Amino acid sequence: MKNLLWSFIKSFKPKSRTVEVTVDVSDEDWKTFTKIRDGLKALKGKGTLELDIIGLSRIHPAVVLALNDLLSNRPSCVQLRVNVLTNLADGSLLFTLLADDLHLRKGVWFQYASIQELENKSKKSDEEGEDWKSSPRAMVNSVKESAVIKDYRDMTEIVSQYLPLDEFEGKRLPLEETLEEYGLLKDPARDEVLARLFKA
Fold first, then answer.
1. What band does 132 get if pLDDT is binned at 50, 70 and 90?
2. Most buried residue, 68, 117, 156, 185, by most Cβ within 10 Å?
3. Do residues 140 and 146 lie in contact, with contact meaning Cβ atoms separated by under 8 Å?
4. Is a pLDDT exceeding 50 seen at residue 140?
5. Strand residues in the chain grouped as ranges (E)
6. What is the total count of domains within the chain?
7. Residue 3 in domain
């Protein structure tokens, strides 16, 4: 009887906990960060954080950098499941790159703007705007824009570790095919077959 009870205790595994967070990328940027951070806290270091990505917008580069730190440094016992239900632009692509388990809606595309495009927009607004030396408001806007460009460069550097962005900038590309081409789309069934083949 003791042996039977002991084998039952050893075989018992508590259910893994899942916290679901809907991430609307058209929301205010820091609201997205807060929702994900709160979801991670609720897991208390173990379980699955499931993100449903909806909406269509660009996430501010500073928020993307903060999210990268947060999700890259999550506890090793926390799995990240990402369901992409919308097309992605720029830094929102990061969600797909950090996922342990990724599900994509059919036909989803992504687009990544070039840093030159951003710098050109900034120059144009400087030329059309007030002289920053004579206007405190224009000076603040100029500082904000240069900070955004610096963050965009840093964000691009992170995403470039996974994908050759210089080939993609400004183009609208199918997400699933692109991730598959660069070996970034995990297929558990295929991985299991490969693992069996390498074992043999």
1. very low
2. 156
3. no
4. no
5. 18-24, 47-54, 78-84, 88-89, 101-104, 109-111, 172-174
6. 1
7. no
